[in-house]
Aminopyrimidine aminohydrolase
Amino acid sequence: MRPTDHLQSLCAEDWQAATRHAFTDQLAAGSLPEDRMLAYLRQDYLFIDGFVRLLASAIAHAPTLPDAIPAAQFLGLISGPENTYFMRAIEALGGQAEPPAPAHPVTAEFQTIMRDAAQSGRYEQMLAVLVVAEWSYLDWATPHADKADDLPFWFGEWITLHSGDGFESVVAYLRGQLDAVWPGLSPEDQRAVEATFSHATRLERAFFDAALAGYPER
Ligand SMILES: Cc1ncc(CN)c(N)n1
C-alpha cells in the first residue's frame, strides 16, 4: 500500500465526512446560501495566507530542484488565479477581503498546524498538511466537475480550481513526495506524520461543519 493510502486509511471516517460533505453538495447544486459562501471564502482566505507560507517552506526544504519546481508552479497558481478568484468572488457576493475576517476557532487551529509544520524544518510534516489540503479538495470536487460551467462563478470556479488534469497532477506530485520520503523516516517520525495527517483531516471536516452552520458563536 502506498504510504499516503496508509495515512488516509487511518482517518477514513473523517476523510469520508470531509469529502462527501453537505456544504460542498449544496455548493455544487447551487443551493448553498450566498451568505454562507461569502463567510466560508472570508475564512478560507485566512487559511490561504498560512497555506502560501507553508508551501513556500516546503519549496525551501525540497531535496532537489526537480522536487521543488512543481510546488513552485503551484504557488504561482495560488497567488495568481486563485487569489484573483477570492477577490472577485468575495466582491461579487457583497463582501470585502480587507480587512480580514476575525478567525473562527477552526480557522485559527488550521493556521496553527500550518505554522507549526512550516516552522518544524521537517519536510514530511509540511507535506502531511499539504497532501491533506489538496487531496481532500480534489476528492470532493472531482465528482462535481461536470456541473461547474452551469453554476454562478463563485461556485463553479471553486470546483474548477480543485478538479481536472492540472490539479490531479498537483495532488499526484504532493503524494509522490510524501510517499518518497516515508521509507527513510524513523518509526517515531512516521508516527508524527500520522498524527499530523489525521489532525489536518479532522480540521478539513470541522472547517466544512462550521461553514455549513454559518460560523455560530461558540
Ligand atoms: C480549508 C481548506 N483546505 C484546503 C483547501 C484547498 N486549497 C482550501 N482552500 N481550504
